[in-house]
């Protein structure tokens, strides 16, 4: 019966096997790496990601004014945000759903739910265009 090998026992190779292993090791040591090592960096490279959310508000909301809105479909707190209205003055009969967006740390009104604003009064609409991730002011039109 053959003796069982123990982990501390020496490994023995034939001369041909040792030369083959040595050639592979030399080739691996002299070949430059084909790619940089894997890294797990932040996906947004330090910038705040842009977000679009749905919220609700009530009461008068003038142009260039801020208002506290409540996020829809959010159960955890905080579920409110201070949002700046750059679109047009709003005065809904009750509460109104709005689309809002975050740029950096600031929230802005994108669009109110116009079906909930039957007969709303507005002084003017500022038209904003999203070009390559940047909001650009285009002009003002009457609502």
Number of helices: 1
The percent range for strand residues is 25-35%
Give the radius of gyration: 32 Å
| Order of helical and strand elements | HEEEEEEE
Ends distance? 98 Å
Shape field: rod-shaped
Pick out the low-confidence regions: 136-143
Helix content range: 10-25%
Please explain how this structure is put together.
- Mean pLDDT is 76; it is low at 136-143.
- This protein has one helix at 15-30, and strands at residues 51-58, 66-71, 80-84, 95-103, 106-112, 125-131, 134-141.
- It has a five-stranded mixed barrel with strand order 1-2-3-5-4.
- β4 (95-103) and β5 form a beta hairpin.
- It has a domain at 51-141.
- With 143 residues, the chain is mainly beta.
SSE blueprint:
Layout: H1 15-30, E1 51-58, E2 66-71, E3 80-84, E4 95-103, E5 106-112, E6 125-131, E7 134-141
Parallel strand pairs: 3-5
Antiparallel strand pairs: 1-2, 1-4, 2-3, 4-5, 6-7
Main traits of this protein?
35% strand, 143 residues
Short description:
The chain is mainly β. It has one helix and seven strands.
